[in-house]
Design a protein that fits this description.
Elements lengths: L2 E4 L20 E5 L2 H5 L5 H20 L3 E5 L10 H12 L3 E5 L4 H8 L4 E4 L10 H6 L7 H12 L3 E2 L2 E2 L30 H13 L16 H14 L1 H4 L19 H6 L4 H13 L5 H25 L18 H4 L5 H13 L4 H15 L3 H11 L5 H12 L16 H7 L20 H12 L1 H5 L5 H9 L2 H19 L6
Parallel strand pairs: 1-2, 1-4, 2-3, 4-5
Antiparallel strand pairs: 6-7
Bound molecules: flavin-adenine dinucleotide, ligand DLZ and iron/sulfur cluster.
């Protein structure tokens, strides 16, 4: 009995289900295909990361004596689709069995389900066991991450003492909101210069994907499990202790702050989520990191990441069509260039084009908030987030974008929209100092665009928000405003929206 075992580009884990029971005579298939490199205009750095990690994973398997069929992007026989490559390998090798692990994305799962005789195994690399989320969600009117997270803490016994949360409290969110003082400089993360395998991939991507967004300059991502683990150790030692305090802070020229940068290697399969949580927990136990940092980090992995994945699979394919706020605008061109006078947007977008990275609050409260307030179409916004971040795969990108940032899912991920004016951005960052716009102004020609857009957003959706207790306050504040003030705000917003409708140049 021989088996052909498919490993996808984001399934690069030694314990991946498709490799369970691997026997002599079996072949492991990895395929670089244009279908996956081009279904959205992925950032060059993201394509390079995935292909370099695939090549290193294949080389490690081969070094263990495993028969690997590795299809390169420029192989003239390459059919350029995953299903096509399974069929081609299968007709050449005539295996007795075809085995794969359930893909992370609905789109790829649908394609693989169409391959006759392919056994699709559950992906066991997540902390919620198969079926767990569906069981937890069944019968609930609303799903809230906080309650799911508590169940996950109990299930895995993470940060628990005698059945109670360590520190007597489940969530230290309120202690994650400090602004970065001018005299604290976050340490530069450990980086990983390309070896010869990665250098070859970089040349390939530069030549084949020249028209894709983003830069390959200074590519230094970890592309093996060993380097990913070393990058994480560097986070534990140097950034985790401050991660809690400054989790929501933003500062110009400081793209990584105290964040872990684990999303890209974790989503590729190079790191294990429970190992990360246990390692962070051990830092608290050893007195090397405070509870607000450790709980904050664990909440993201054990709570948010698992909750988001559960929402995706529970609500797809319908989720991808949701547009609860009927948003219709096209994405202004500055999302791809960073060329805007709004300093917060310029910072978040230009670091994204440079590194394929922005941290959560930049994604949610800068680019996401702007898209929400301006009424950009969720399809366009989804495509952007999926394309530009090196950690982006639809299962995690879409509920974050359509749900958390745009509220287009009508409230499945979050009970209220994360809408904010410039005051929030000014409180959490130093962007407004040195911006061409004045954050204290709302209606003048150089007033911060977020201010008028915020009130216009509340006014446009007041009927819907009046019924939401968590939005009642801004709706009441809008109604308390003098009619002249309301009119001036709406006129300023109309001017900004017209510029956006014309592509955004000059904003
Ligand atoms: P840290 O801040 O150090 O957090 C630790 C880890 O927790 C992350 O690596 C990630 O694995 C997990 N995590 C944190 N927040 C979330 C979340 N909301 N959902 C899922 N996991 C989370 N994350 C992705 O992995 N891929 C995406 O495509 C993606 N798209 C996003 C789009 C939008 C609009 C928003 C608001 C968030 C998105 N996120 C996405 C979540 C989050 O912003 C990133 O995981 C995080 O910024 C990655 O940086 P980090 O590894 O330094 O994270
Ligand atoms: C993201 C990506 C890219 C850019 N290229 C490939 C590839 O050439 N071959 C492959 O197997 N996987 C690739 N991937 C990852 C897939 O898109 C990913 O497996 C699906 O999005 C499912 O999560
Ligand atoms: Fe952004 Fe407004 Fe501050 Fe400028 S003033 S950085 S546009 S929030």
């Amino acid at each position: 009995m021989s088996a052909l075992r498919l490993v996808l580009g984001d399934q690069l884990s030694r314990n991946i289900a498709a490799l369970e029971g691997l026997a002599p005579g079996d072949t492991v298939l990895l395929a670089e295909v244009l279908g996956e490199c081009g279904y959205v205009p992925h950032h060059k750095r993201k394509i390079a990361l995935v292909l370099a990690a695939m090549r290193h994973f294949a080389a490690a398997l081969a070094a263990r004596g495993v028969a690997v069929r590795y299809v390169r992007l420029d192989d003239p026989e390459n059919t350029q689709s995953l299903a096509g490559e399974i069929l081609r390998a299968s007709s050449e090798l005539a295996p007795d069995r075809l085995i794969a692990t359930m893909p992370g994305e609905y789109r790829v799962a649908a394609a693989l389900r169409g391959v006759a005789g392919l056994e699709l195994r559950e992906d066991t690399r997540f902390l919620a066991p198969p079926g767990y989320f569906a069981g937890w969600a069944a019968g609930k009117q609303v799903l809230r991450m906080e309650f799911f997270y508590r169940e996950m803490r109990r299930l895995h016994g993470v940060l628990m003492a005698g059945g109670q949360p360590v520190g007597g409290q489940w969530n230290f969110d309120a202690e994650n909101r400090r602004k970065l003082p001018a005299d604290i400089a976050p340490p530069a993360p450990r980086r990983f210069p390309p070896d010869s395998i990665t250098a070859e991939v970089l040349a390939l991507v530069a030549a084949r994907f020249a028209d894709h967004p983003g830069s390959l300059e200074g590519f230094d991502e970890p592309v093996t499990a060993r380097d990913a683990a070393s990058g994480f150790q560097d986070f534990l030692a140097h950034r985790l202790p401050m991660f809690g305090d400054y989790q929501d802070a933003m500062a110009a020229g400081t793209p990584f702050m105290f964040h872990s940068l684990v999303a890209a290697p974790l989503n590729l399969g190079l790191l294990d989520p429970l190992d990360l949580c246990r390692a962070a927990e051990a830092e608290f136990a050893a007195g090397r990191a405070p509870l607000n940092a450790v709980e904050g980090f664990i909440r993201q992995i054990l709570g948010w990441r698992e909750f988001i994945r559960g929402v995706y699979w529970r609500h797809m394919p319908d989720y991808a069509t949701r547009n609860a706020l009927a948003a219709t605008r096209a994405l202004p061109a500055f999302y791809w260039t960073g060329e805007t006078r709004m300093r917060c947007m310029a910072e978040a977008i230009s670091q994204t084009m440079r590194h394929g990275y922005a941290h959560h609050i930049q994604r949610l409260m800068i680019t996401g908030n702007f898209a929400l307030l301006a009424g950009l179409h969720p399809d366009a916004v989804d495509e952007w987030y999926l394309a530009v971040y090196i950690d982006a795969y639809e299962w995690v990108e879409m509920p974050n974008t359509r749900g958390m940032a745009l509220h287009a899912d009508g409230g499945i991920v979050g009970s209220k929209p994360y809408a904010a004016s410039g005051a929030y951005i000014n409180r959490m960052s130093n962007y407004c100092t040195g911006c061409a716009y004045d954050v204290a102004e709302s209606t003048s020609p150089n007033a911060c665009p977020f201010n008028a857009l915020y009130w216009d957003f509340i006014a446009r959706h007041e009927a819907r928000f009046a019924a939401n207790p968590r939005m009642a306050m801004p709706v009441r504040s809008w109604h308390k405003m003098a009619p002249e003030r309301q009119a001036a705000l709406r006129a300023r917003a109309a001017t900004i929206l017209e510029v956006i409708d014309n592509g955004g140049a000059g904003l």
